[in-house]
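Appendix B: complex inputs.
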Amino acid sequence: MYRTHTCGELRIEQAGTPVTLSGWVQTVRKFGSINFVDLRDRYGITQLLFNESLQAQLDAQPLGREFVIAVSGTVAARTSINKNIPTGDIEVIVTQYTILNAAKTPPFTIQDDTDGGDELRMKFRYLDLRRNLVKQNLELRYRVNRATRNFLDSRGFMEIETPFLIKSTPEGARDFVVPSRMNTNEFYALPQSPQTFKQLLMVSGYDRYFQVVKCFRDEDLRADRQPEFTQIDCEMSFVEQEDILNNFEDMLKYIFREIKGLEFPEAFPRMTFDDAMEYYGNDKPDIRFDMKLVNLTNTVKGHGFKVFDEAEVVLAINATGCAEYTRKQLDELTDWVKRPQIGMSGLIYARVGADGSVKSSVDKFFDETQLKTWATLTNAQPGDLILVVAGREEKTRKAASELRLEMGERLGLRDKNVFKPLWVIDFPLFEYAEEEKRWVARHHPFTSPKPEHIALMDDLSRYAEIKANAYDIVLNGTEVGGGSIRIFQRPLQEKMFAALGMSPEEAQHKFGFLLGAFEYGAPPHGGIAFGLDRLCALLGGSDTIRDFIAFPKNNSGRDVMLDAPSAIDEAQLNELKIDLVRAPKA
Amino acid sequence: MYRTHTCGELRIEQAGTPVTLSGWVQTVRKFGSINFVDLRDRYGITQLLFNESLQAQLDAQPLGREFVIAVSGTVAARTSINKNIPTGDIEVIVTQYTILNAAKTPPFTIQDDTDGGDELRMKFRYLDLRRNLVKQNLELRYRVNRATRNFLDSRGFMEIETPFLIKSTPEGARDFVVPSRMNTNEFYALPQSPQTFKQLLMVSGYDRYFQVVKCFRDEDLRADRQPEFTQIDCEMSFVEQEDILNNFEDMLKYIFREIKGLEFPEAFPRMTFDDAMEYYGNDKPDIRFDMKLVNLTNTVKGHGFKVFDEAEVVLAINATGCAEYTRKQLDELTDWVKRPQIGMSGLIYARVGADGSVKSSVDKFFDETQLKTWATLTNAQPGDLILVVAGREEKTRKAASELRLEMGERLGLRDKNVFKPLWVIDFPLFEYAEEEKRWVARHHPFTSPKPEHIALMDDLSRYAEIKANAYDIVLNGTEVGGGSIRIFQRPLQEKMFAALGMSPEEAQHKFGFLLGAFEYGAPPHGGIAFGLDRLCALLGGSDTIRDFIAFPKNNSGRDVMLDAPSAIDEAQLNELKIDLVRAPKA
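Resulting structure:
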C-alpha cells in the first residue's frame, strides 16, 4: 500500500498514529543530524523528519527535488509550528522510506513565479501543471463545470451527446475536416458547435438540453484563441427570450455563489445593442466603470477646426480626476491613439480646472463658453479631463471605446475581483461582410428576426434595420455567452437562407435535414452557449484562457509538448486516398 | 407565454385552475360535438377537451398528428379516469388554442412498435428520437452519466478535459486524422483514448482524474461498433490493482443502485484470464449461468474415434435438463456448430437417461462405463445432455464458448434483468498478431507487466507467459471496462517499446513526451476506462449501443440523416493543400 493518508490530511489529533505517505519531495533541509523533507501531493504538504538512522540510506542516494517517495513513520507534534499550512502542527517521524522514482532537475522552477518562459513551460506542460497556480485554475474549471451541471440538472436539463464526425457546411468560420477511409473522397467535419443537433433535439421533444462539449474552428489564431474550445451548450423549447434570459441569469448567479461566494440580488442589467454601440462603442461594454462616450459632433462642428469639421463623428469621454495629467502623459496618450491598432490622427483634450475653467488643446477654435458646453455634455467636474477623438464613424467609435477601456485600466477601474454582468439584447440580424460584399448572419442563420421586422427581409436596402431575437451575456467587457430564439418554421428558414445568398438547392444540400425536421412539428425554441474557457478565465481573474486549459495549443495551433500536428505515414495517406500538395522547391 | 405547466404535471388538486399548455398532438378523437386531443410533451400526456365553440376553428384547419399547439383553458376532473397515466384524473377544457406549427404525416408511426425500418428511422432520426423507447434510453444514459459523476466527485476525482487534436501514433487501431491548414502537410489525429494525457496528469500530481469523453477509432465497422464512442476514463496515482478494483467496484455498485435499484452486498467475483479461457472459452464469461467447459481430451483419446484422436482438444458442456432433446433439435444444433462462424466439423452428444444410463452418438467407440466418466466429469445428472466438440485448440475453445452461450440463451439462462459482474484479471501482457507476425500489446504499450515477469521480457520464447497488471470488468458476458496498472519508469517503458519492435528513435518520435515525463518524478499509477455506450445498453437491457446514442452512424460509418461524410469544396481542399486520389474511371 502506497499511503494511508494524503499529504494534506494529518492533524495534531493523529499524533502517535503510524502512517504511510507518498508524494513528491518539495524541499530537503538538513539541521545537524536531522533531514527535513517537505512532501507534497495534490492535497497539501507534510513535513517529514528523517533521523540519523536513515543517513546512510540518504547518503547512498540523496533525495532530490521532485523525487517520488513513499515513507512510513509516526505522526508527531511539531516543535516549530507552521501556521500557514493545515498540516503545520505535525510532522511525520520517518522510520523507513522508498524512492519510487527519481527525478531530473526540472528545466524551470515549479513555483508560482516560475523562471520558465512560455515556450519552455508549454513543452514541459506536465511540469507546468504541477505549479499551484495552474492547479488552482484547473480546479476552478472543474468546480465551474460541476456547478453548471448541478444547476442545469435541478432545472430539468438533460445532457445529450451530439456527434463529432458531422457534415461540412462552410458558413461562418472554417471547418476542420476529417477524411473518411470507408467513404472514399468524402470528409467529415468537426462541429463548430452542436447548433443544428440541439435544434433537432427540440424537434424531437427533449425540451431542455445541455452539453458541455468541445467545439472546433479552423481560424487564423489571434492571441488567446484556441482551435478547440469548450462550450456549455443549452437549448429550451416553448420559450421566449425572457425565459432564456431569466433561466441563465439564475445559472450565472448560482455559479458566482458556488465559485466566488458572490451574491447578485438584483437582476442583471440589460442594454440594447444600439445603446451599447452609442455609449460604449462596442457590443460588449465593460460596465465596471461609467465613462460613457459622449457624442459632441453637432456641438463642435462649424468652428473652423478642420479635424472636427471633416469628421463623421466626434466622441468624448470624461477621464474623471485626470485634469492634472502632465504634458508628457497626454503626449503618450496621443501616441497611444495614433498606434496602427487604434488609428486615430490625434487626440484632443480639455482640462476642467479647480475653479471650473476649461482649457483645451484647441483653444484656438473654441472659446471657454463652448468648452463649458463640452464639460456639461460629458458631465465633467473640476479636476476632470475630457478626451476627444474624431474621424470616420466606425473607426472613431472603436477608438473611443478602446480609449475608454485604457483609461479605465489606468484609473484602476477594472478590478478583476469586481464582477459586472450585462445582457446585451436586440442585436442586428445581419451584418455586411465588406470582403465578401454580401450580408451575412451576425449570429448564425438559425437566429430568428424580431417578428415585426420579418417584412423588411424583402427589402435589401433595409437589412441593416432588422433586429434579431439574439442576446449576449457580457462579463466585465468580455462576451461569455450568446444565443437566440431560433427560426422554427420552414418558410422563414428558407427565406433566411435565401437572404444570405443561398440557392434553394444549396440550402437543401447543406441543411435539408433541418428544413425537413421543421415540417414534422417543430416547437418554438431558443438557447444559449457559454464559452467555458473564457468564463473560467474571468472567474479566475485571468486574461488568458490558455491558463485554464490542461493542454493548450500555441498561437500556431501547435501542441509543442506532443509536437502535433505532424507528418503522417505514406501508408495512412494511401489508405485515405489523399495526396499532399507539396510546396514547390525554391 | 407558451405554457404555465407541462403535460405531465396537472393533477385533480388543480381542478378549476386556468392553465396554458404546449405540446404535440398525439391523437384526435371526436365524440359527438366534442373533440378530444391527447397533448404530449417530454413530461407526459394531458387530455384536452375542445368543445363545440371551437369547431369552426378546427374545421378551418384540422389538427393532425404531431402538430405543435398551445392551448389555454381550465383544469377539470375527468369522467372516465385513465389510471395508466399520472394525469389521468383530469382534462383541460380548452377555451382557445393556437397552432404553433403544422406537421406532415410522419414517414413511420411514432410508437414503441414502430413500422419504420432501420434505414428510414435513421434518416428521420429526429422523429425516431420522439419514440418513448428511445427517449427512455437517452434518459437512462443521462442518469448513468450523472451517477458516475456524482460518485467520482464524492471520491475526490476531478474532471480534466484533454485535447481532441493530438498526434497520430499508429499502434493498435487506425487513427482518424485532421489535416492542418496552418501547418501545411501536417495532420492532427483524433484521440483513440486520452491514455497518455491522463498518465501525464498523474505525473503532474492530479492524483485522481476522470473524464466522460468521446474517443475515435477508424476501424472497419463490425455490427454495433461506432467510429466515435464515449468512455468514462479514469486514472489514480499511488495505487495498486486492488485499489482500482475496489474503487470502481464501488462505482458500479453505486450506478446499479441509482439506475436499477439493485444492491450488490457481496464483492464482485474475480477470475483469472487463464481460468476464463479454460472454463468459459473466452475472456469475458457470462456467469449468469454455470455450464462450464469440461476438458475431456485425456479421457476420450485412444478409443478409436478419429475425430477425438486427431483433436488438439475435446470440450464438453452439460446442457442441464436437455436429455429430451429430439433428433431434430440435435440435428439443428449440429448444423449450428457447423456454420462457418463456428466452424466445427460436427457435434457429439450423450444423453443421461432418467435411470442414469448414458447413450451417446458415438456408442460405437465408447461403452457405458466410459460414457459414465463423461457424466461424472461434466457433473451430468439424469435428464441432462452432454454436448461435445473437438478440433484445434483455439477454434474448438471458441466454438464451445459459443455453444455454451447459445444453450444458455435457449434455456432462458441469460435474463436481461439479471446482472452478474465479474472481474477478469491477470491478462497476458502480449498477444501474437498472426498477420503482422509479431507480438503486440494485448491492452496497450503502457500496461505494466507483473513485476515477477519483467525478466521474461528478455526472452522472446517466453512472451506468452508474461502476465500484466491488467483487468477487465465484464457484465453479463460483455466487457464494459478495462484497465491496468501502468509502467511509470522510463527504462521499463523503453523495454516495452523495444519488445513491441519499436526502435529507440521511433519510440522517441512517437512518445518522447511520455518518456521525458517519466524522468521528472512520475508516481506509480493506474486506471480504467468504461465504455459508456455499452454500459448503458446493458443497463437498458439492449444488445445494440446504437439505441443509446442520440445520433449514431450506420455500419458504413455514415450519418444518413446528415448525409455525412460528404464531398467538400475544391476551395477547402486547396486551403488544406491536399489532393484526392480518385479511383480511375472504369
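Chain B has a mean pLDDT of 95.
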